[in-house]
Q: What sequence folds into this?
């Protein structure tokens, strides 16, 4: 029961949560998907499915935020970073034949009114993404309040566009949303100077 086993559980649950959500993913399925022994699940996650869910969402949130930071390290234009981030989702949806969404959003939609630990975890992840983007927008010259509002708008647009593209099996909503969100960012930056 190594740390590698724990990571396999987290990888498997993230894949399954993206595809079928938290409620639709049982522990036996996660164990089978991970290839790890059943008994090791409770060794690594003594709190069961809820503890595994919180750990999966937290880890997924960090990974998605790291992608944003990596894009930011390669670009000077925040609007382009957002367009690139949306494009990565277009590619991921196409690669999964529109089966995989955002594991955080998928769980958040299910758990917001039924599981306080998962709701709180998802809220923290979304807040960290908003903060990362708001800090970047502040560095571009936006006032803190304006940067925070624009970050909320960008994240809400992104998550909604993923949902629309996934259900329509069409990258169009993500592409349109990327273009309009980038335009809003460029306009906000230009008018702040």
A:
């Amino acid at each position: 029961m190594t740390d590698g086993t724990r990571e396999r559980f987290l990888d498997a649950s993230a894949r399954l949560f993206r595809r079928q959500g938290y409620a639709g993913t049982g522990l036996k399925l996660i164990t089978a998907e991970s290839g790890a022994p059943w008994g090791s699940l409770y060794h690594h996650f003594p709190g069961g499915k809820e503890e595994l869910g919180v750990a999966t969402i937290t880890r997924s949130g960090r990974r998605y935020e790291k992608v944003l930071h990596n894009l930011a390290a390669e670009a000077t234009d925040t609007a382009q970073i957002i367009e690139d981030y949306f494009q990565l989702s277009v590619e991921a949806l196409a690669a999964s034949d529109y089966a995989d969404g955002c594991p955080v959003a998928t769980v958040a939609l299910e758990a917001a009114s039924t599981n306080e630990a998962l709701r709180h975890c998802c809220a923290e992840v979304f807040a960290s993404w908003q903060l990362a983007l708001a800090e970047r927008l502040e560095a571009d010259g936006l006032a803190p309040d304006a940067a925070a509002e624009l970050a909320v708008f960008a994240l809400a647009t992104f998550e909604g566009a993923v949902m629309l593209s996934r259900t329509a099996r069409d990258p169009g909503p993500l592409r349109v949303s990327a273009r309009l969100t980038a335009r809003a960012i460029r306009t906000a930056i230009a008018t702040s100077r």
